[in-house]
Every structure is written in structure tokens, then in C-alpha cells.
């Protein structure tokens, strides 16, 4: 593209659009129609410049001009409670449902890794000895030991808040840093499964696996599901960098990134619920069967929320992305 020729050919249109925008509401019907047409043409010019002849100063001017025109054409939009209701009843569950082909295999593989690590530690006393001294292992695994008292070591409210903060941070890292070719996500997943596998192995070797599972399952089912969803979404985001499909890498990454930000908000609420269960139910005096039942009910409720509400919304075309009016205009691409 010859930039000078392009600017000479379209400068009059840009100046005319700027003039109409400065007039604000004092436009006739014909001028309003002209403003819309000029806005659409200028947005196309901006896309062409960004893709073939990027010039910082010109791109900056047109970006500002298109933003002003878009605000004038579409009007100012304010978020309302309806947006929040729409997000939690449609957008978030649809986004989780649409990414199920990533987080379900992630969950299955990660669980298998944790089980394998647990079996390996339980079957090899020398590995247990490398983890801690025999006296320390007995202190951790005995009835009333560190594995059991951990959940009641702090007041329930502060413990739940601490757990929620830590898990939300881990989920956010998976979602945000997945764009770095998936590597941070794999590392965080491995760390979580390693810790779980060590607990399974040590408590199993002490003959107390049932007690361990009775403490982990009430909150762990929902908590780990949220982590797996975050990890799967992060992996999907990372794969978008590698293979954006028919879209440009910038457009594909922007679309997936916006959905990932929404997922972070929704998963924060899910992890808050699991944190409440971990802080108030796991260390409670309820029978083991009652605590596990609460965990199973919470997990089934989340899965029904995703597969029923989310599946219905996804089939209706919901993607979990922001509203069309809030997205940047892009050029169509050939399939």
C-alpha cells in the first residue's frame, strides 16, 4: 500500500467525519446518515492500515476518530444489574460449556497423575523417607495430626477467606498466563496434583486414606473442578496463540482473552463457595458421609449449571464474549 496515496484519497472523508462529530447533536437527518457511512468507511480504513501499512501517528488519529464516531453512533452504554444477571445465567455457564473439550480432559489427566503419584509414594517407603523423617510423617498422618488439624487451625471465616484468595489467584494465573504457550498452566497443575498425590500417598501408607478423602472431598470436588476449568481455559488461550484458525492471531486472542476475563470473574464466585465449604463444613463435627454429601451436591449443582444452562445458552449462540457493541470492529475473514 502506498501510504501517501491512501491518505490523499481519504483525508477529505476523515476531515468531514471529524467536522460532523464536532457539531454533536446539531445534525440533520441526511448528515446523521452521512456520519454513519463515514464512520463505517473510516473503521475499514483503520483495519486496512493496521494490517498492511501501520503508521503510529495516522493509526492513532484514526483510532481516536473511530472511537468518537462509535460513541456518537451507538450512544453511551452503562452496565446494569441486567448485565450481571445475564452473565451469571447465560454468559459464564456458556463459556464454561464451550470450553469443556479442554477442561474435562485436563481434569481426567490431572486426576490420573495425582493418583499415580499417590500410588508411587505409598508403594515406595524410600520416597516417603525423602519427603520427611519418620517421626514427622507419623505426626502428619496420625489421628488428630497435621493433615486433620490443618482445616481447623484458624477461625473458619478467616480460613475460608485465605483459601478463596489463594485458589482465586491460582485460577487467575492459569487464565491470564495461558497465553504464554500453556507452560505456566501446566506447571500450576503439576504443583496442585503433586501436593494432592503426596497427601494420598502418605495417608494411604498410614492406612488412613478414608480419613484423608473424607477431609478433601467435601470442598475438593468443586475446588478442583474450578481449577481444572481455569487450566483448560488457559490451555485453550495458549493454543490460540499457536493456532488462531481462520482469524488473525490478534482477533482470535482478543476474543478468547475477553472470554477468559469473564471466566475469571465467574470462577472467583465458584471458588468462594468451595472456600466456604472448606472453612465451615470440612472441619465441622458433621459425620463424614454428611460432609461428603454436601461436597457432591455442590459439585453436581455446578455441573448441572454448566451443562443445562450453559449448554442451552451455547446452542443459542452465546459465546461468553462481551456484547457485540462493546467489541472492536474487525474486517471479515475468509473461511
Describe the fold and architecture:
- By secondary structure, this protein is an all-alpha fold.
- Helices cover 79% and strands 0% of the residues.
- It has 13 helices and no strands.
- Helix 4 crosses helix 13.
- The radius of gyration is 27 Å and the shape is elongated.
Question: Mind summarizing the main beta sheet?
Answer: none
Shape: elongated
What structural category characterises the helix and strand content?
A: mainly alpha
Quote the distance from N terminus to C terminus. Answer: 24 Å
- Taking Cα atoms only, what radius of gyration do you get, to the nearest Å? 27 Å
H-E order: HHHHHHHHHHHHH
Beta-strand content bin: under 5%
Overall strand count: 0
Number of helices: 13
Give a nutshell description of this structure.
The protein has 335 residues and is an all-alpha fold. The protein has helices at 3-23, 29-52, 56-74, 81-98, 100-123, 125-131, 134-141, 146-149, 156-176, 183-205, 209-242, 249-281, 288-315.
Looking at this protein, list some descriptive labels.
single chain, 335 residues, mainly alpha, 13 helices, 79% helix, disordered C terminus
Helices and strands in order:
Layout: H1 3-23, H2 29-52, H3 56-74, H4 81-98, H5 100-123, H6 125-131, H7 134-141, H8 146-149, H9 156-176, H10 183-205, H11 209-242, H12 249-281, H13 288-315
Amino acid at each position: 500500500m502506498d501510504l501517501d496515496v491512501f491518505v490523499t484519497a481519504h483525508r477529505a472523508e476523515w476531515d468531514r467525519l471529524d467536522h460532523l462529530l464536532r457539531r454533536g447533536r446539531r445534525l440533520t437527518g441526511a448528515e446523521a446518515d452521512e456520519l454513519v457511512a463515514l464512520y463505517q468507511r473510516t473503521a475499514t480504513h483503520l483495519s486496512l492500515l493496521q494490517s498492511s501499512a501501520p503508521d503510529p501517528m495516522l493509526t492513532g488519529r484514526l483510532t481516536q476518530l473511530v472511537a468518537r464516531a462509535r460513541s456518537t453512533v451507538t450512544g453511551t452504554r452503562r452496565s446494569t444489574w441486567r448485565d450481571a444477571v445475564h452473565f451469571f445465567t447465560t454468559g459464564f455457564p456458556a463459556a464454561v460449556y464451550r470450553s469443556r473439550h479442554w477442561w474435562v480432559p485436563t481434569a481426567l489427566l490431572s486426576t490420573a497423575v495425582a493418583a499415580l503419584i499417590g500410588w508411587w509414594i505409598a508403594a515406595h517407603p524410600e520416597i516417603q523417607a525423602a519427603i520427611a523423617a519418620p517421626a514427622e510423617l507419623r505426626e502428619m498422618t496420625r489421628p488428630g495430626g497435621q493433615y486433620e488439624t490443618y482445616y481447623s487451625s484458624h477461625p473458619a471465616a478467616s480460613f475460608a477467606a485465605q483459601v478463596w484468595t489463594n485458589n482465586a489467584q491460582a485460577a487467575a494465573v492459569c487464565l491470564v498466563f495461558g497465553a504464554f504457550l500453556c507452560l505456566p498452566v501446566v506447571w500450576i497443575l503439576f504443583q496442585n496434583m503433586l501436593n494432592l498425590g503426596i497427601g494420598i500417598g502418605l495417608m494411604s501408607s498410614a492406612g488412613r486414606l478414608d480419613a484423608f478423602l473424607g477431609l478433601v472431598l467435601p470442598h475438593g470436588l468443586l475446588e478442583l473442578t474450578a481449577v481444572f476449568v481455569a487450566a483448560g481455559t488457559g490451555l485453550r488461550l495458549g493454543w490460540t496463540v499457536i493456532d488462531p484458525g481462520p482469524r488473525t492471531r490478534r482477533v482470535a486472542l482478543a476474543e478468547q482473552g475477553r472470554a477468559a476475563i469473564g471466566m475469571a470473574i465467574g470462577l472467583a464466585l465458584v471458588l468462594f463457595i468451595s472456600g466456604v465449604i472448606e472453612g465451615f463444613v470440612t472441619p465441622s463435627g458433621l459425620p463424614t458421609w454428611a460432609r461428603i454429601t454436601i461436597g457432591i451436591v455442590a459439585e453436581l449443582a455446578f455441573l448441572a449449571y454448566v451443562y443445562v444452562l450453559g449448554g442451552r445458552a451455547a446452542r443459542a449462540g452465546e459465546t461468553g464474549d462481551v456484547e457485540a457493541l462493546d467489541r472492536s470492529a474487525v474486517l471479515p475473514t475468509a473461511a
